[in-house]
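User: Fold this; tokens only.

Assistant: Input:
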Amino acid sequence: MQRVRSTLFALVLALTSGVASAQLLAEVALAPAIASQLFPPVSWPSGSLRAVGSGVDALVARVVPDRANWRDWEAYTAGGLAASLEGALVYGVERDLMMQGLFRAETTESTVGAERRTRVVFSDGGSQRALLVVLRSGQELVWLVARGR
């Protein structure tokens, strides 16, 4: 009888531990969400998003002087905690370009005010090229990707 009780207890414990973990996770997620509504300086880190619209064109015009040599612009942004993943985000873009046969041909870094800019040109050694521009200012990260004309 003791063996049945201990087996039943272990089974109940195993079944309820997942529920308890899920409840704890929900509470951990809910507490900062409520706090961010009550105290605006506390907020969830924003994730990465694709940027579109005239703001992207203005940004490209501001940071890429030879923009006429590039086409098919894509812009992405990450803020807060997600911006600290800059290395992984840039690596993901580089990996995708390398899988297309494009490799780093030229890298330029500069700082304008509080903004750090990294410009990387990728090439297949022939006519196919791509451009990656990474802009970092505080907790904001923007990266632009384009194809050569």
